[in-house]
Amino acid sequence: MRRMDRALKTPEEILRVLDGCETIRLALCSDSYPYVVPLSFGWEEKDERVYLYVHGAREGLRHDLLARDHRVCVEADRFLGYARTSSSVTCQYESVIGFGRAEIVAGEEARHGLELILKHCGYGDVPVNDKTLEITGVWRITLSQLTGKRRTV
Predict the structure, then answer these.
(1) 43 has which bridge partners?
(2) For the chain, what is the domain count?
(3) Which of 30, 129, 135, 149 is the residue whose CA sits 20 to 30 A from 107?
(4) H/E stretch holding 25
(5) What is the mean pLDDT of each run of 10 residues along the chain (153 residues)?
(6) Cα separation of 81 and 91, whole Å?
């Protein structure tokens, strides 16, 4: 990170920013070009690791790319508005970037992931039914690195 004065210093700060984000962007490796997709997500910290959960169809480009290469990059951000500076205008924001590996999960792990997604989206009271589990792919992303940055004036 070039501007260390803007770095979020503690894991708690980084996780607070992540929790305030509505969407992550998931970057995947492709043979010819990067592929990025915005996704709803849920997350948890367990045993000093951060896990993200995402869901979607069990087929398609994202599914195919993850089957070939489990390495991912995730990005999430919060736009805090524009502000005047002494010489111009700047964007105020908070953001996190993480690197890790994604794997598809099933059974109770998938149910848990969907429950975390629903909770993060504000619908933690909605139960996950068995039919949803049958037709939905759920991926757990185990992050090996997570950094954060904030710009405010």
Answers:
(1) 52
(2) 1
(3) 30
(4) strand 24-28
(5) 75 95 96 94 95 94 93 96 92 95 97 97 94 94 96 87
(6) 6
